[in-house]
Amino acid sequence: MSIEPLSWGRGSSLNDVGLRTDTAGITETPRWSVPARSANLEAVRIALTSQDSLGVVITGGRGVGKSSLARTAVSELGPDVWTLQLRSGPTSARTPYGCLAFLLARLPQAYMGSPTAILRGITSLIRSDAAGRQCVITLDTAGSIDDMSAGVLLNILLTGTARVVAVAPRISDLPADFHWLLTDHRLTEVRLDNLNELQTRQVLLSLLGHRVSASLVGTFHTMVGGNPLLLKALVTEQQHSGNLVLSDSVWTLRDKVVLDGAASLDDIVRSQWTRKSEQEREVIEMLSCARSVELSRLTAVYGAGIVADMEDSGMLEIDASDNRWVTLREKYLGDVVRSWLSITRRRELRSLLLNGQDPDPATMTVEELMAFSAWTQECEAELSPPMALAAAEAAVELFDPHFALRYAEILKRNDPEWVPGQRQKAAAYLLLDLPVQAMAALEDISQPQLDNLDVEEFARVIAAKAKAMVWLPEHSDRVPGLLRAARKRLGVEPGTAKDWPEPLAAAANRISLSEFEYQAFVGDYASAIPALEAAADPEQNPDTWFRMNSAMILMSALSMTGREMDALSLMRQLGGQISDAAQIVGLREQFTGRAYAVLLTAGQWRRCIDLLDPPPLREIHTLPYRSAAAELSAGIAYVYSGRGAVALDSLLSATAQLELRPVQSMLRAAYAATALAYAQIGNAGLSRKYLDKLQRAGGVSDHATRSIANFCADVAGRWLGDNDAAARLKKSAREDIAAGRYTLAGISLLGATVNGTDADFRLMEEVAGHRQGPLAEISRLIAVGSRTRDAKTLLAGGELAATLELDAVEARCMALAVDFARQAGDSVSARTAQARLDILAATVASLPIVPSSGSPLLTSRERQIARLAGRGSSNRDIALEMGVSVRTVEGHLYQVFTKLGVTSRGDLTGLV
Q: What DSSP line would sit under 403-445, residue for residue?
């Protein structure tokens, strides 16, 4: 059909300019969610520019960013595209030409006589407005489109007058004619789902403009289910409440997310609430209070039908555990609805679910205990002492110290649970890095109360005191005496108790474990190993709790004293037994922490990263303390590998969180590791800034954490040219050798001997002889190669470092090999080392050693030319491909041959 533009002088003018936009003048608010939709945006762009395509249909749920994506895609087409925006509201289906009404108003009266004339008139009007430009219509459908509008739109598409970007929740919301266009591939569907966690991170970066912590990303993603609209509302609310803060250029959460009074989210939830049935609302109210309910119990109260319907519609989520826990799929919904409910209504729902019977805390999981206790307090009801104690223990296990303190405070001094409650209070204070308060809580237990305790509870109190005292310098030396006095009172000897499970034997084992923990805390690994080996032996020790915990400390002791491979073997053995001992509280967390240290000291940083799995989604938004520790651990693993640039995201995030919520002196390690990361990328100013922060930070650390912090700080100082840093590393190595900590001594010497003496290298070689594994062999090869100036030995060390992906260590080997090979006239080794060093320059921003022979690394252009020449390309072919002159190619090749010590193109093969 061919329609010539009409003269519109007699028609009405366009008054609603908001419905027609020219892409040259778009002045919308920033499209902050677009960075996460790059793949979808590209799909829309292809559909709008393909020759045979009539356009694209963007579908997806409410708030996923359909309209934003459509506007962005159209705006990117440029000023040569004329755009027309149409909207179809809920009442449009009952109004002929409903979404085209503003165009209909502009038609001359002569074209209002028949549907055909209207069709011809609107089509011609659009062509006239486009004035020869390509036209794209954006159709935003909140409801069905009337048949008359659908017919006009179909004609516009099929005549090539315009292409369409249709936005709808589902394909079924579009005219039926659109369906066959989709089937015939004339239209393309782009389906938008909620954001995944990576996309949520991208959106938060775009919205906030700075780095964001992993705990922030995980918390917000879990709460809103990846919905961009809700995500923006949540960010706004948390900024207004002061809970979302910018700490040292990283956005993080000050505390848990609380949505009481969240106006924008409240409005969103109320709009959904009006569309729910009465039964659905009551189920939502129940789950908002209880957080999670067993499927059998929920169906007993409300019936299986309503629960099944709500699961099918996506409102509920049922996990695959034996209890089949039911939760609200959108976590924010429960938080907002809970804030609406009165105390009376909360109590009604609690009574309805429990049927007048409180659960037995001994039969509940930690998650159940936390949910039940929170619900009880929200109802302003009292928790029974046994339930309060169990909730405090659960909160400590879940790294939630504030809730642990709240529940422990419920207990009264005359309650039988008061003394165990003081232990949980002390554990919570230690999580908050408040050892003075922890010690005060334990010292509040009177002597008569101690005298009346049974032997097992007495041993638990003594163990709790020992854990608190090690963090207080004035009390730390008293721990051995405390444990000896406890043994004397119990009348037991050191070593594994043979008559377990008798209470006295269990108490003796707990005291023995405290002794092992103290020795590990102060770094006395070597002397502890014989007793640890006996305690970890299943044939000598039937107490599973004591045996597993002892074996994990033994694993750490072996890794520190040069027996890295023995430690890794024990780690694999224990890893297979963890599931069988799942009933032991906190065992998996203890294993993860100690296994990380074993892998780190063995040079297996990649496995450290793999070990740091995030917590389950049901828990992540309640675990800010665990998140900071996990991010710090990941950052330390990266800096140990020499990847400072990669480490910074994790380290800066961890540092921001730890500055707000200190966790057992981890902040010192975070400052030191961040300083080393900046030194590795050559940023001396920021490296010194974090070293200064480290100097001002106080606190006590366990030996393992203190060793990491000191090593990172001294290596950063050495990288920055601090002459005393190498001396400090050597002093630390000598202290470790005296204490039998050969692994730590070897690591310190590896960092201290970048410009070492022959005596340093002999000591380094000697220490390597007391160790096991590839990291020890790398140290030995570097020591021997540096002392004898043997390039081939250093090449072997570099190859072994490459297997562990220790880039900085490999670069050190190759830089030395370049110098020694050229001095010895070994051109083959020199070329090999130089080529490998050239490749490493892409990942090691600041080399630990630069070859002193004066031959710099290849530039990016030299490397490109060398690769082409090595493949047999002529100078003229290279010049044409790179867009430079032949003379430029010749000059670059001369530089390449000089730097790599080669004489022909054939020698370049495999070097670059």
A: HHHHHHTT--TTSTTHHHHHHHHHHHHHHTT-HHHHHHHHHTS
pLDDT in tens, 676-688: 999 988 888 999 9
Same-domain status, 680 and 595: no
Q: In this structure, is residue 555 part of a structural domain? A: yes
In one-letter notation, the amino acid at residue 286 is M
Residue span of the structural domain in which 670 resides: 622-721
**Quick check: is 85 in a domain?**
yes
Q: What percent of the chain stands above pLDDT 70?
A: 89
pLDDT at 2 over 70: no
- Residue 582, amino acid: A
Q: What's the token pair of residue 851?
A: 């070859």
Looking at 196-210, 743-757, 859-873, which range is the least confident one?
A: 859-873
Rounded to an integer, what distance in angstroms lies between the CA atom of residue 820 and that of residue 818?
A: 6
Alpha-carbon distance of 681 to 646, in angstroms, equals: 10
Residue 317 inside a domain? The answer is no
The angle subtended at Cα 317 by Cα 313 and Cα 323, nearest 5°, is 140
Distances (CA, A) of 650 to 184, 629, 638: 48, 10, 9
**At 644, which CATH number?**
1.25.40
Instruction: Judge if 101 and 186 occupy the same domain.
Output: yes
What average pLDDT does the structure give for the chain? 84
Query: What CATH number does residue 111 fall under?
Result: 3.40.50.300
Same domain, yes or no, for 575 and 534? yes
* pLDDT above 90 coverage of the chain, percent: 32
644-660 and 624-640 helices cross at what angle (nearest 10)?
A: 150
The angle formed by the CA atoms of residues 337, 343 and 346, to the nearest 5 degrees, is 60
> Are 661 and 624 spatial neighbours (Cβ–Cβ below 8 Å)?
yes
Instruction: Answer whether residue 29 shows pLDDT above 50.
Output: no
881: domain CATH number?
1.10.10.10
C-alpha radius of gyration, the chain, whole number: 35
Amino acid identity, residue 649?
A: D
From 564, 599, 634, give the residue that closes a domain.
Answer: 599
Closest-CA residue to 511 (of 469, 456, 593): 456
Six-digit token pair at 291?
A: 């957080």
Domain count, the chain: 5
Where are the strands (E) in 143-301, listed by range? 163-168, 187-192, 211-212, 244-247, 250-253, 293-294
* Pair (168, 219) in one structural domain: no
* Residue after which a domain boundary falls, among 215, 237, 258: 258
Helix axes 418-431, 385-397, angle to 10 degrees: 20
The span from the CA of 140 to the CA of 126, in Å, is 18
Q: Is the pLDDT of residue 90 over 50?
A: yes
166 occurs within a structural domain: yes
Closest CA to 674 of 252, 219, 254, 248: 248
pTM: 0.77
Rounded Cα–Cα distance for residues 7 and 2 (Å): 16
Residues 566 and 680 occupy one common structural domain: no
Beta-carbon count within 10 A of 216 CB: 28
Residue range 267-288: average pLDDT? 86
* Token pair of 104 as six digits: 């209909």
Question: 785-813, pLDDT tens digit by residue?
Answer: 999 999 999 999 999 999 999 988 998 89
Which of 590, 591, 608 lies closest to 599, judged by CA?
608
H helices present in 720-806, as ranges:
723-738, 742-752, 758-768, 774-788, 791-803
Query: Residues 662, 555: one domain?
Result: no
Burial environment of residue 243 by CB neighbours within 10 A (0 to 12, 13 to 18, 19 or more): middle
CA distance to 282, 334, 367, 600, 606, per residue, from 286 (Å): 6, 9, 17, 46, 44
Give yes or no: residues 89 and 228 share one domain: no
Whether residue 701 is found in the same domain as residue 560: no
Q: Residue with structure tokens 């709008």? A: 48
Residue holding tokens 């340093």?
760
